[in-house]
Amino acid sequence: MKSKISNPYFHILFWIIVLIILTGVFGRSWGNSLPAYYFISLLLPVVMGTSYFFNYYLVPQFLLKKKYFWFVLYFFYTLVVSLYLEMLVLTFSLIYLANFDLGQMGLNSSDTLLLAVVLYMVVFFSSFLLMVQQLFESHRELEELKIEKKKMEIPFLGLISNRKSVRIPYYEIVYIESLADYIKVHSIGKREIGSKEKISAIEEKLPSVFIRIHRSFIVNSERIARFNSNEVELDGIVLNIGRSYKKQVLLKLRNQNK
Question: Which of 14, 164, 200, 205 has the maximum number of C-beta atoms within 10 A of its C-beta?
């Protein structure tokens, strides 16, 4: 299971929404939205730092590993440091935004307590969103594994060639070539079998050991002798990697070789 949400747009959108909501909450409480906006903008780095440290360090390093004592201890330290930074932001705001005039900001003692509560509400809410994303990601990976297992239960590629049904074991396939409106399966022993099929339809039938490297080629990664950023060699045959497929192909091949 992944421990991070890697999409940067999710993070940007999330913190923009947090900024808008907190500005609205405190702006309404203070009766002035502009000082609230400046104040929340100054406070936001503290909230973000606390959130990321809690979710991406404390939780995976201690809580998920059942190191409860260390999790509680470091969480307490995080609480102290974050509240200290929050007070620094508050002091800075009083100096530069309100010139020591609490009335100008509409701030009262209950608001300072609310700040601490809101800070950790945001932290725990982001943790909840991370958990939900992980559940969806796990479900998606489970479905992919089920599909992959189903493909591997039939260890051959079924085709119609010359009006006859043909079964080609996966391990015999070297690569599949697309030629206009039909494909040609190149198997061990330089045997070639043609079929009036689209390469995209064949790609969906094959297990993950087969990789689309080009609009015209699907290769059996288990038969690749060597590869670089431009081509692969398998059974003495060199095939080019398509520009639009290069990033995905190299990632898959490097992961398989680990």
Answer: 14
